[in-house]
Amino acid sequence: MKNLPTNISRRHFIRISALAGGGVLLGFEMLANTQAESMAGAPLFSPNAYLSIDPQGLVTLMAPNPEIGQGIKTSLPMLLAEELDVDWNKVVVSQAVLDKDKYGNQTAGGSSGIRTRYEPIRKAGATARYMLIAAAAQTWNVPEQECNTDNGWVIHTTSGKKLSYGELSSKSATMPVPDNIKLKDPAHFKIIGKRIKNIDNKKIITGQPLFGIDTRRDGMLYAMVSRPPAFGKQVQSFDDSEARKVPGVKNVVQAGNVVAVLATNTWAAKKGRDALKVEWKDISKLESTTEHIEAYKTLVQQKADKPDRSDGDAEQALHDATKVIESIYEVPVLSHAPMEPINFFADVRDGKADLYGPTQVPGRVRTDVAKALGITEENVTVGMPRQGGGFGRKLRSDNAVEVALISSAAKAPIQMLWTREDDMQGDFYRPNGMYRYRAAINNHELTGWYLIAAALNSNKAASAENFPAGALANYRTDSHGLTSNIQTGPWRAPTHNALAFAEQSFLDEIAHELKKDPVAFRLELLDKAKNNPVGKLSYDIDKFKSVINLVSQMSNWGHNTQGRFKGFASYYSFGTYVAEVAEISFVNGKLKVHKVYCAVNCGQVVNLSGAETQVQGAIVDGLGHAWYAEITFDKGAVQQKNFNSYKLLRMQDAPPDIEVQFVQTNEAPTGLGEPALPPIAAAVGNAIFAATGKRIRKLPFSSSL
Questions:
Q1: Which helix (H) or strand (E) element contains residue 481?
Q2: Distances, alpha carbon 257 to alpha carbons 233, 234, 280, 422, in Å
Q3: Measuring CA to CA, which residue among 680, 686, 676 is closest to residue 519?
Q4: Nearest of 5, 4, 13 to residue 179 by alpha carbon
């Protein structure tokens, strides 16, 4: 074998494979399985759960994690194809079924898909490749060392003889697992790092059924559900007499704290729900946003009993300071609002449940549905369609549990669909929060930093390890949580999405107060952390500097074009370093973001096209929510019910250009789906300050401009 330097022992390979992803990643019952298939007259080379090759040479690659728009269905099979050494254009990619024993943890969240599976899946491809080589060498009676592969062929380098993978498939199934596996040197990658089109592009643009909402089963009824109109309410009673008169309505059932109308089509179900009369009772306090804000104002003035982090003595540094800079930043509640509304299919009968629908956590869905129905997990199947966005909303299993209970009560297969209003009023929201920063200044230097943060249902409103922790002798962060009956949950880049805006804006404030360039000021602090670190240092200084320096070059930082103003921010999350520069100007008297420059250090990029799309999408998502979006509550009820009041970024308001560059590295990939979102709000806010002299400390921007 040539150019394959990474040595992996058999024992290490099996151990890592078993531990990856929280479960058994590769099924090494493969020899028995493949031999049994051959004896049954259906020879198939399937050395592990991720791939198979039939005698006709058809290579099928399996994508184990849910596809929620992050491109994982394309990029994970690319890892297989790279090490297997096949022509990408001649493979079939399929969504894997839920199977913990074969695939381990199949969650899509935390920007973890590529990060956790990069090496294990490459090893799966490399294992199959070695077994194919062994089969060819045995056929030719030559040493394996004289054989190599190229785009689906095993070649005897001395004689030039070659056999296709299809021709070798049956024999390969009888080969033993190799003792040592060598992975490719990144210098010889043919697929990884290239631009590969999304595997589902054609199906998407031609309207083929890919999504949960496309599910059709015999005897299926459509469900629309009446839910509490406010957090803190519960079903008391309902009258379904008028609902049952609607043509197409077949049944009305209660399942927990909801009432479902079942019909032969979605419109009939909706009309039936409109005619349903439900009485609701209060079971807890009906909260309002104004009350939350007032509580935060008190909390951020209070020292926590135990800090998230405390280096030196920040309070003493503030006391001794010649000047103290103090600012309070606020962020609102946000809805996930994916383009695909919540939906799910369930068919519960005879002690079994068959489910199919959008989820980021199919394993949790199986567990929670089994518990809700009182059946074993072995009797619950969960299919994974492509999804029209997740952003953390589908890390919850409520929609699957709800439809399973409805199906069980109705004794019928059910397709449940939420309207946009249902979706926006029944979300698990990004918590709102308030952040009080104080900076101690002595002799024109930053000598102390104290943050007190408060957020809804979160005792960790601040990150203890965030930069500039480690760069300052006196540094402290405190967190307060405000308990609420309003549902909250992970929203794209949890905690970071709010904290980055506040932190990076405040750093900009300090830089201007010290009359230092904002970029140079960050680099100066990073040098302090490198030369004289204080306490735990959880970030890589050189990687941080790599993106700051790169984006400075990309944006020609420090040289403003007439009428254009720039703002800078940099942030670290999910193992990835991102620096962004936003360029804005006035157009017809209104501010517009003209361009965003973004530098990313995320390790090895797997699919360059998909990676750029992820970064650009995160920036647009973050910018839209920072500029317009806000959810408010009045007596427990959501005030924004659709996109007319919960505005997202329109095409005419989006930056015409988002330039993305990746720091070149052969290190293993880190997270990418989320890290580009957190810094964009601060980059734009800092640009607004450069343009207007006005510091915006409360999101959304539209409420302050």
A1: strand 475-482
A2: 9, 6, 10, 14
A3: 686
A4: 13
For 680, counting Cβ atoms within 10 Å of its Cβ (0-12 exposed, 13-18 middle, 19+ buried), the class is buried
Scanning the structure block, which residue is given the tokens 């973004």?
Answer: 598
Quick one: tokens of 344? 């799910």
CA–centroid distance for 291 within its chain: 31
Helix H or strand E encompassing 406: helix 398-410
Q: And the tokens for 371?
A: 């518990």
Count CB atoms within 10 A of the CB of residue 429.
Answer: 22
In this structure, the number of other CB atoms found within 10 A of the CB of residue 626 comes to: 25
CA distances from 114 to 76, 133, 360, 577 (A): 7, 27, 15, 16
354 vs 611: CA distance, rounded Å: 34
| Closest of 455, 446, 450 to residue 436, by C-alpha | 450
3-state secondary structure of 416: strand
612, HSE (Cβ side, Cα atoms, 13 Å): 15
Closest C-alpha among 343, 340, 392, 399 to residue 369: 399
pLDDT digits (tens, 9 = 90+) for 263-278: 999 999 999 999 999 9
**Cα 612 to chain center, whole Å?**
15
Beta carbons within 10 angstroms of residue 17's beta carbon: 22
DSSP 458: B
User: Which residues on adjacent β-strands are paired with residue 224?
Assistant: 261
Length of the chain: 705
User: At which residue do the structure tokens 């909402």 appear?
Assistant: 213
Task: With beta carbons less than 8 A apart as the criterion, state whether 29 and 112 touch.
Answer: no
Cα radius of gyration rounded to whole Å, the chain: 28
For the residues of 248-299, what is the DSSP string, one character each? Answer: TEEEEEEETTEEEEEESSHHHHHHHHHH-EEEEEE-S----HHHHHHHHHHH
Residues 385 and 356: beta-carbon distance below 8 Å = yes
Q: Which amino acid is at 342?
A: I
Give the integer Cα–Cα distance in Å for 609 and 373.
Answer: 43
Could you report the per-residue pLDDT of 573-621, keeping only the tens digit for each? 999 999 999 999 999 999 999 999 999 999 999 999 999 999 999 999 9
Which run of H or E residues covers position 609? helix 608-627
What one-character-per-residue DSSP string does 217-230 give? -TT-EEEEEE--SS
Q: Which two tokens stand for residue 459?
A: 């005792």
Token reading at 373: 């129905």
Give the pLDDT band of residue 43 (cuts 50, 70, 90): low
Cα distance between residue 240 and residue 224, in whole Å: 13
Looking only at Cα atoms, what is the longest distance across the chain?
A: 85
Check residue 44 and give its pLDDT: 80
The rounded distance, in Å, linking the Cα atoms of 295 and 495 is: 19
